[in-house]
Amino acid sequence: MTTQATVLVTGASTGIGATYAERFAQRGHDLVLVARDRQRLEALAARLRHEHRVAIDVLPADLTLQADLDAVEARLRDDTRIGILINNAGMAQSGNFMQQSAQDIVRLITLNISAVTRLAAAIAPRLADAGRGAIVNIGSVVGLAPEFRMSIYGATKAFVLFLSQGLSRELEPKGVYVQAVLPASTRTEIWERAGIDINTLTEVMEPGELVDAALVGFDRREPVTIPPLHAAEHWDALESARKALLADLRQAHAAERYRA
Ligand SMILES: NC(=O)C1=CN([C@@H]2O[C@H](COP(=O)(O)OP(=O)(O)OC[C@H]3O[C@@H](n4cnc5c(N)ncnc54)[C@H](OP(=O)(O)O)[C@@H]3O)[C@@H](O)[C@H]2O)C=CC1
Ligand SMILES: CC(=O)[C@H](N)C(=O)O
User: Fold this and answer.
1) Helix boundaries (H) for the chain
2) Is the shortest distance between the CB of 161 and ligand 2 below 6 Å?
3) Whose CA is nearest to atom 4 of ligand 2?
């Protein structure tokens, strides 16, 4: 048994989530692993228990299903050992906006937005009361890039970034750290699941490198971590431009260029 916070990782059966689980186990944290595939979760849990001597619970759930989401929310609300949420489960889309069915759209938004938001909302009050803890939300650089023409997926990831930045401002004064992590193309099953051939991509990061970099940002308590961004000053410039824009919003009158 450890005295460190237990970490609940969603989408822990493979890819980035499984890598987070492995890294936190290496750090000596107990884990709660969430995804749909019970067998894969059990196999990962057995290996990590054996290799790292940590306690691991498996909580199979389809986060697009109300009852399953309710159960994970309840766990986050009630299990006071859980001090870190890795809000990672997500899916991508293939094809452009007009090729998405209503069902595809709802599933994407339900997993990438609703579940992420509800799980953060389930744990935030308890962490704020305790005055410690962390929520890590996995976004994507696609959320900064309408140019990529993954409009719904990108919009869900823009939401994740905004949500994280807002929560950071609300929760940081209460001792709760909120991090948005924005990966770019990473070698996981997400591509195949979305019907995209990963071999068509020119550059792909390995999940281990991605998560290790994200954890450097985590340890530094960075609010936004973008492992594939080499020149950090580009992000700083974007933030500065955004703040300058906000400072120039004058609510009483329309700008000169819009006056008839
Ligand atoms: N790989 C990449 O290039 C990038 C990924 N990201 C983001 O990283 C996050 C992780 O993606 P990645 O590891 O690549 O993807 P994977 O497809 O490899 O893994 C996704 C994980 O989410 C779980 N999952 C999928 N649907 C559900 C569901 N309905 N309910 C519960 N769990 C579910 C899957 O497990 P199971 O099938 O067992 O449910 C799996 O564990 C996502 O949010 C993604 O958007 C961001 C930028 C780039
Ligand atoms: C499939 C993707 O677009 C990927 N998950 C990403 O966010 O870059």
Assistant:
1) 15-26, 38-52, 66-78, 102-109, 116-130, 151-171, 190-193, 207-219, 232-247
2) no
3) 185
pTM attached to this predicted model = 0.98
What is this model's ipTM? Answer: 0.98
Count of the separate structural domains present in the chain: 1
258 within a domain of the structure (yes/no): no
Position 237 in a domain: no
Q: Which residue range(s) make up the domain with 43?
A: 6-231
What residue has token string 């909580």? Answer: 59
Residue 56 banded pLDDT, cuts 50, 70, 90:
very high
Active site residue 153: yes
Contact of 248 with 237, CB cutoff 8 Å = no
CA 202 to ligand 2 centroid distance, Å: 13
Q: Which atom of ligand 1 is nearest to the CA of 107?
A: 29
Structural domain contains residue 246: no
**Residue 103, in any domain of the structure:** yes
Q: Does ligand 1 come within 6 angstroms of the Cβ of 72?
A: no
CATH of the domain at 184: 3.40.50.720
